[in-house]
Amino acid sequence: MCHCNRRQFLGGATGGALLAAHWATAQAMAAAVPAWPPLPTARIYKVYAGRTGDAYLTHPTEEIPRFEKHLAELEKKLDGIKLLGGDLVPPAKVEEVAAKLKGADALLIIHLSGHGGDAPVLTKLIDVGLPTALFSQPFSGHGWMYFPQWHKQGRKVVLMPSSDWGDLEKALCLLRTPAMMKQTRILAIGGPHGTAAACSPKAVKEKLGADLVTVPNSRVMEIFKSIDPKAAEAEAKQYWISQAKKIVEPTLPEIIESAKLYLAIKQLMLQEGAQAVCSVHCMGDPRGCLTFSKLNDQALVGACEGDIDSTLTMLLFAYAFRVPGFISDPVIDTAKNAMVHFHCTCATKMDGPAGQRLPFVIRTQTDSRGGVALEVEHRVGQPVTCAKLVNLDTMLIVTGKIIETSKSPLACRTQFAQSVPDARRLFLQWGADVIKGDVMTLLHRVVFYGDYMKPIQDLGDLMGFRVIEEGGPRV
Questions:
Q1: What distance in Å separates the CA atoms of residue 17 and residue 8, rounded to the nearest whole number?
Q2: Looking at the structure, do residues 215 and 110 belong to the same domain, yes or no?
Q3: Model's pTM, two decimal places?
Q4: Less crowded by CB within 10 Å, the N or C end of the chain?
């Protein structure tokens, strides 16, 4: 067992010059690795609804250019968004605008004024069937009373009666998600594992639009054998060894082999044009822990144990909120009113790809006492969301905060406890009677930094899945 820092691990006696040469070589070789292509893009058509001018409960005409400027700034800021249109109804005829929506993936309606008579007009846009967000500020008339009918009818609509223009950014992020899912390719190495619906490529395509493809592990191993050992060493040193607080059990060759697997999986994903991968062979040699961690750091998805339900959950959160997920084997602690999460792989950029990396130690897996895994130090006090999309139609969710971290030798390497509303009720209602499957399918959940209860309800409205607060009342 090493218990050494990165300098000691590489041989501190050789001096700083040799160590600097190591890093320079690693950086040069890592830079030569092909870059990931851009994420899918959603085409969002914007429509302004209602008259403008100097009138009762009517927004001034000058507000439209301000909206246009604000939306243009958001288009530059956000990934995967292309804004189209900008029609004002009236004077534009709603039938003509509806015809233009055929080339769009989603619809954003900014309601400027109306007292109810405009609801049937806007319904013609809703009838096109695109995922739609309607933003309506106070003092835009009394027509808002008629908009909830679309929600009650199960239309793919998110209603945002708000004075905060920041909600427009949230709307765009939600609207891009269904379109991005339809342009997503998921590789299941060795086949998917989870609920029956999620394991069906046909059902996944029909419900979410994504392509689910099974890839034999032999193909991964063929690519693995072709990876340049020097490139793997450079990857290991630059992304893992140079950034780790310390390395405990694994040897340098073992870490290099794990980095080599990442390069092989990356090459496979680039060949297939994939944005996500899950594998039932992740406990092989080498383990998949480092591979999945880095994929998740990069706004892609890597999921262990072939868990397709968690893979789909992580894709939805990655597209909507730009945060990675931590797949957990949770246990319940009623004494602390908490759910304790643990696993041996974890993203190090839990705030998103532009965020800072969390401190981590390179360890072995706890259960196998081998391979290369991660002990990531999570942030106490951080709001979190624990969720899982199951059967393609139900999102289980519970929110809370990280109340403590731990290092129990009985559990996987990365460990922390999340507060929950009622731990006993969560224990008794685990799975909310909607999960059918084996131990992994019933057990796994995914944890994300941030409180996404309300946004997930909105995303459910857009994409047609119900949301259940696990261990609580139905949402």
A1: 14
A2: no
A3: 0.92
A4: N
Q: Work out the mean pLDDT of the chain and round it to a whole number.
A: 91
Q: Tens digits of per-residue pLDDT, 196-206?
A: 999 999 999 99
218 φ, ψ to 5°?
A: -60, -35
15 domain-assigned: no
Q: How much is the pLDDT for 15?
A: 44
Are residues 159 and 285 both part of a single domain? no
With CA atoms as reference, report the closest residue to 377 among 396, 355, 404, 401: 404
For residue 242, pLDDT over 60 is answered with: yes
Q: How far apart are CA 52 and CA 46, in angstroms?
A: 17
**DSSP-assigned letters across all residues of 79-131:** TTEEEEEEEEETTS-HHHHHHHGGG-SEEEEEE---SSTHHHHHHHHHTT---
* Tokens representing residue 361 in the block: 């130690």
Per cent of the chain over pLDDT 70 is 91
Residue that the structure tokens 């409180």 belong to: 451
**Strand-strand pairing, 466-469 and 394-405:** parallel
Q: Quote the DSSP letter at residue 13.
A: G
Strand 360-363 and strand 185-189: the pairing is unpaired
The range of the structural domain enclosing residue 116 comes to 42-180
| Res. 337 pLDDT band, cuts 50 70 90 | very high
- Can you spell out the DSSP letters for 150-208? HHHTT-SEEEEE-S-THHHHHHHHHHHHHHHHHT-EEEEET--BSSTTTT-HHHHHHHH
Task: Give yes or no: residues 227 and 129 share one domain.
Answer: no
Cβ atoms 198, 192 nearer than 8 A: yes
Instruction: Report yes or no on 223 lying in a domain.
Output: yes
Confidence bin at 437 (pLDDT 50/70/90): confident
Give the domain-ending residue among 133, 154, 180: 180
Task: Report yes or no: 28 and 21 within 8 Å, Cβ to Cβ.
Answer: no
Residues 394-412: pLDDT tens digits? 999 999 999 999 988 887 7
